[in-house]
Amino acid sequence: MTSDQKLSFNRQIIVRVLYIIAYFFLVAGLPMIVGDDWGELAVYIGTGVAAVLGLFLFRDRVIAGLKSLKEKRLKLVLSVIGFIVFQAVVVAIATKVVPGFGDSANQSAAKDAINGSLMVATILTLAVFAPIAEELVFREAMMGWAPGKVSLTIATLVSGLLFVYLHASFTLTGFIYYLPGTASLIAIYLLFKRNIAASMIAHIAFNSLSAIGVVTAGMG
């Protein structure tokens, strides 16, 4: 690696670290600062800002990824469908085997929010902004920098475990619930050669289906 390449690599690392810090401040720190009265709205605004900021910082990667997918659209669609089926099977089996499975605090909060007064903002956040921001943080920022197999393996484990940990409400059933989805998103990101656009589209599809399911159940 030449001196110019090292400088470019170091700059990439700095940008990724700063974005990760900004993300957690916007989606976790900001709601704590404004308090309970404005906390929910702060989460939506923070997530939206984090998504826009990430798209700006990693715009070259996102644009290149979208261009690459033009000839791989069928592969992406089949991959997304396949992983949705995989998740559905795992969840169905776990629901029968694990007591209290699927009743995590995170899931309950999401359902309450979707059926609440800010339904439109909630759906947009969960189905669009959150998937974009989370993929840019947990996949691109945490995994995209890794130059070799060892570093990529370590980055993948750290990213995956942290993603599940933050979504699982610190419970075993929550961990089991989110593990298949997390593994699916990581697999798609790696299957398409670290194409962040592919994992973002897949994540949006997963979350959109979940949101539709919650809304439909609430109307029933």
Could you characterize what this model shows?
The chain is mostly helical and 220 residues long. It has one domain. It is built from nine helices and no strands. α1 runs antiparallel to α6 (119-143). It is globular. 32% of the residues are buried.
Chain-wise SSE layout:
Layout: H1 3-34, H2 36-57, H3 59-69, H4 73-97, H5 105-114, H6 119-143, H7 149-167, H8 172-191, H9 196-219
Domain CAAX prenyl protease 2/Lysostaphin resistance protein A-like: 119-208
Protein name: CPBP family intramembrane metalloprotease
Keywords: Hydrolase, Membrane, Metalloprotease, Protease, Transmembrane, Transmembrane helix
Number of strands: 0
Which secondary-structure class do the elements indicate?
mainly alpha
- The succession of helices and strands, N to C, reads HHHHHHHHH
Rg result: 18 Å
Transmembrane segments: 13-35, 41-58, 78-98, 118-138, 150-168, 174-192, 199-219
Pfam family, one: Rce1-like
GO biological process, one term: CAAX-box protein maturation
Domain CAAX prenyl protease 2/Lysostaphin resistance protein A-like: 119-208
Short structural summary:
The chain crosses the membrane at residues 13-35, 41-58, 78-98, 118-138, 150-168, 174-192, 199-219. With 220 residues, the protein is mostly helical.
Q: Can you give keywords for this protein?
A:
85% helix; 220 residues; transmembrane; metallopeptidase activity; globular; CAAX_protease; metalloprotease; 9 helices; mainly alpha; hydrolase
